[in-house]
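Q: I'm building a small set of examples for a reading group on sequence design. Run inverse folding on the following structure and report the sequence directly after it, with nothing in between.
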């Protein structure tokens, strides 16, 4: 009985000492700067493999119920080819085309997508393109490309493994000129963006706020980010009378501020971020909830 109690005491003391030691090492790594964040330092091969496996599993699980539209049409793939050239080649490269400096120096490295069809189903390529990969630099295109445009790129990715450098160059000669996709293409064509028909969605607006980098300058409750004060904090923006001291704080006022900032207040430090009308409406709905 005595012995048992002694053993329990020793076990508890050992656990406590080990926990303290672990906390000390953890503290030294986090606050003492022991972890080397240099991009010239690579992960261990094992770490790399584990991260890659986790990413693949995550994508497969989340993409499993997506319905794939028909992707065999040549015209569809050709529009996708142009969009691929405008939005993807900088990082991923293409047959006979090197990625830009940016793409060559990222970690993890954006691989060439010439063999993507062999590793991923079409619906998985759609999911990755639409949602991006967090902590990797692969952007989410949901807020920059329309859904049809994402599928067009996926249609082109189905053709890519069959193209050598000369064939790729030939596709590029036939593909529409830049800007071929996204809001810039709509503006250049002189068309107005399709009216925002979807129901206003404040939760989507919250996501749009960080997808359009608003939190680079503003503290926004509910959006993770640094304590920045380049722009005023948007806490309580829902009950303020005016926006930037110029516009009445209504839904229409907010949409106008977000989409035509420089027109409303020429020379203001806040840039126009290329936000579509639909995204601006969703953002305005979320901002109105900040009381
Ligand atoms: C700013 C650079 C950048 C741009 C632009 C970019 N990507 Fe990526 N992409 C990445 C990075 C980084 C990864 C992550 C690689 C990893 O995790 O191994 C990635 C991964 C991917 C993957 C998964 C590839 C694999 O097999 O691991 C796909 C598919 C993909 N991107 C498609 C696209 C498409 C389509 C576009 C254009 C609409 C695009 N990317 C634009 C950086 C970029
Ligand atoms: C580069 C920094 C920067 C970015 C990015 C930015 N803003 Fe701003 N924002 C500012 C500055 C600076 C002001 C103050 C402008 C003024 O009063 O002239 C401002 C003002 C505002 C205001 C008015 C705040 C008030 O107190 O009246 C709102 C609302 C706003 N921004 C929303 C947004 C949204 C939404 C986005 C993303 C689409 C965004 N901002 C992106 C810098 C930025």
């Amino acid at each position: 009985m005595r012995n048992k109690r002694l053993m329990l005491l020793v076990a508890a003391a050992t656990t406590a000492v080990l926990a303290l030691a672990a906390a000390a090492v953890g503290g030294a790594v986090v606050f003492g700067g022991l972890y080397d964040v240099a991009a010239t330092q690579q992960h261990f091969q094992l770490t790399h493999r584990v991260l890659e496996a986790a990413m693949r599993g995550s994508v497969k699980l989340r993409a499993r119920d997506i319905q794939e539209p028909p992707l065999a049409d040549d015209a569809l793939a050709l529009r996708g080819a142009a969009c691929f050239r405008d939005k993807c080649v900088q990082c991923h490269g293409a047959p006979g085309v090197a990625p830009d400096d940016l793409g060559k120096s990222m970690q993890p490295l954006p691989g060439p997508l010439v063999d993507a069809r062999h590793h991923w189903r079409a619906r998985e390529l759609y999911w990755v393109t639409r949602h991006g990969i967090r902590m990797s630099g692969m952007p989410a295109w949901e807020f920059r490309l329309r859904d049809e445009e994402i599928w067009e790129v996926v249609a082109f990715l189905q053709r890519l493994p069959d193209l050598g450098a000369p064939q790729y160059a030939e596709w590029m000669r036939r593909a529409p000129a830049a800007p071929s996709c996204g809001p810039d293409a709509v503006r250049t064509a002189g068309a107005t963006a399709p009216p925002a028909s979807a129901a206003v969605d404040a939760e989507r607006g919250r996501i749009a706020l960080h997808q359009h980098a608003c939190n680079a300058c503003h503290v926004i409750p509910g959006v993770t980010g640094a304590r920045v004060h380049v722009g005023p904090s948007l806490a309580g923006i829902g009950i303020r009378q005016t926006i930037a001291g110029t516009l009445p704080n209504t839904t229409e006022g907010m949409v106008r501020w977000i989409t035509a900032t420089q027109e409303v207040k020429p020379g203001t430090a806040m840039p126009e971020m290329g936000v579509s009308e639909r995204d601006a409406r969703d953002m305005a709905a979320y901002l109105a909830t900040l009381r």
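The mean pLDDT is 93.
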